What we know:
The structure is a homodimer.
Chain A: E1 5-8, E2 15-16, H1 18-27, H2 32-52, H3 56-59, H4 63-78, H5 84-95, E3 98-99, H6 103-112, E4 117-121, H7 125-134, E5 144-146, H8 157-160, H9 162-167, E6 174-178, H10 181-190, E7 193-197, E8 213-215, H11 220-225
Parallel strand pairs in A: 1-4, 1-6, 4-5, 6-7, 7-8
Antiparallel strand pairs in A: 2-3
Amino acid sequence: MKIRAVLFDAYGTLFDVHSVALAAEQLFPGQGAALSQLWREKQIEYTRLVTMSGQPEAHYRPFWELTRAALQHGADRLGLDLTPAAEERLMNEYRHLSLFPENREVLAELKARGIPAGILSNGDPEMLAVAVKSAGLAELLSPVLSVHPVRRYKTDPAAYALGPAALGLPAREILFVSSNAWDALGATWFGYSTLWVNRSGAPAERLGPAPHFTGRSLREVLACLGKPRTARAAVAFP
Amino acid sequence: MKIRAVLFDAYGTLFDVHSVALAAEQLFPGQGAALSQLWREKQIEYTRLVTMSGQPEAHYRPFWELTRAALQHGADRLGLDLTPAAEERLMNEYRHLSLFPENREVLAELKARGIPAGILSNGDPEMLAVAVKSAGLAELLSPVLSVHPVRRYKTDPAAYALGPAALGLPAREILFVSSNAWDALGATWFGYSTLWVNRSGAPAERLGPAPHFTGRSLREVLACLGKPRTARAAVAFP
Lengths: 238, 238
């Protein structure tokens, strides 16, 4: 069994959303961390609620809209005066995120090795296109897959199924890489080979199978390529 | 259009989980609020992940088990030494919760009016049976519906469908009552008439339709019974 392609989650995995928290702190001193945390949690919750509704065709909204709604709710929770200008400033942070420092060299190395490397993200196509272009990654990432066409967010299997369909490979021959433990779990259940990039040293989930690999940066991707999938403990984060 | 029956969410709506936070604070001074919040968030997340997996038959675990796993993860996050004794003490708080003070009179009034009043909960049948018995509500609540038979947690429509099936009524003639905004939203999407009991004065969701009614205590149930469902703003929380 060999890894023949790599798919990355986008937000938090390839793109560093920390700048969003910085901007939130500048706008709302002392509340930036709380706002960005509530914003992120509600953003994820909304993706799940529209997907679990049983009528995602009726209730689906693009990630950009859910992200905005989640920001508004976070501000409501904290009693912040989110002016239109502040809202636009924070939303625009999501459009132009920076890369984690090690990512470019990892992507370049994958390209040098001839291993297809793409994105599979909840982000809608326009968001992803702008983010990839802003970060100067257009040459290094293909395919860039959004869940938008299936109107179901991860961890719905219809979202994960986009990867094997686009790459023409079985899921187990694709390494799915995410910094979100829940995303790694969903991908593992779906059948991908999985790497959880646990940048913050968070505890492992207490539910389901462990990811096949765990590491602290995207560099771990290169280490995974030569390892058998069954060696789950080999690079596990202690 | 008339409300002919009422279904209540259990945890946080009928039963006050505050005692859980108190016990957590006694065990881990200064960390009780954080632990109980992480615990609750992870508990809900796990119900969603197993349901969204696309194979809930394979990945479903009873609510009791997910609750325990979520507690363990919360302790992991905070770096707490959750001994087996501490874990059992906290889990047992979930078995024997107190009622919110107004609830008994509301349930008694529904019984006096001949309006069926039951539970539709993520809790598994044993948890619910113990909670109802502990609170002395066995005479006042029927049916007590758990999502367990369908192995899908709210907000999956298969969970909400248990209510109309058990009561022999269309969803819109059933008032679904929850303190969880996401639960009220899921029930509204499903087709119930809905009351969000917003005890904490939380902001409304920025997603989907508002619940048909909003109030600050379970007493609002009685006010809803005589009101037309279309009068959404009539008892809305400002």
